[in-house]
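Example (one chain per record):
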Amino acid sequence: MGIKKKIGLGVASAALGISLVGGGTWAAFNDVETLSASYAAGKLDLTAADTTSTGINLSNLKPGDVFQKEFELDNVGTLAIKDVLLKLTHSNFVDYVGGDDTDIWGKNSAADFLRQFTITVISSGTEGGNGYSKDIVKDVNLFDFIEMTAGKGVPPNAGSVDSNYYDAESGRINVITKTGADQSYHGLPVNPDDKDKVLFTIKFEDIDDKDNKGRQIQNKYQGDSITLDFNFEARQWGGLTIEESHVDEDGYISENEKSHSEDGAAVNPGDDEEPGDGGGDPTPEVTLTGVEVDDDWSTYTEWFQKKYKVTATATFTFSDGTVLSDTKSKNSNANKHGETFTFSVNHPVTGEVITETRTVKWPDGGE
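Predicted structure:
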């Protein structure tokens, strides 16, 4: 697990000098007080416990099987965690080589094998409420998902990832609470005590494609195996200018245990508030100022038939300057009535889910 720490070290001293003169002679007295200031860095410490009874390694899977992996993420350090970035990697791919009956095996790569699976990722705070659970990733090809989380700058497939949870700077996906009306539960704070669960659902797709001899195409994956490795990187909030109200009587910076403990962040709700109690300062009013939809139509051939696909992206603009987008795709018969999409985004500050339904039409007017 990658852990990023910021550590500040330093020593400050203050000298108090007093000089007195008397009796016509110079007498020097000196009283020196030294104040030692110690600086101790906080600890960023994340645990990821596999709570699934099946364990991580599975064998003897067949197309159509669905299995789940759930991890409970817990902040056991002293610093609030801003986000947890997922990196999914693979290793130990084995391409099974059978005997003379090539109907039931074939030469494959790891990428070929991974493309037979889809993955869905759901995040939920164990305390419940606050607008969760959320589908962060839905039905993405497993190979593409691994590329998305590798930090290579590979963007998510259109509409496959909630835009609020894709960190474009790192090219990674955040898997813990980021939105919701109660901001004190954003990320993984120490105070209030918070745990998040991340549920991965992986499906071995049953693709009913056959070759010209009537043999299932997926036969060639029989006996293949691979290992998936889940890596979670916890990151701190930004720097905070320390004020008197942030420090307790022992010099401990208790503010750094809380969400949004960084300069310029929103004020935290009350320490003792539970999700949905509405503690702390009220959320500023934010309104939707506009929605624009762009659509892209394409054609493809399947079983010697010409088919159509449309991808539409809705861009939502808000009064506080926030811009969010949602992308949807579907196959179409390109008729004159067009295709109807329902787009939705979740505002990261207010936690409000905004939906908009729009119809897009084939550029040539449809058939």
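Caption: The longest strand covers residues 288-302.
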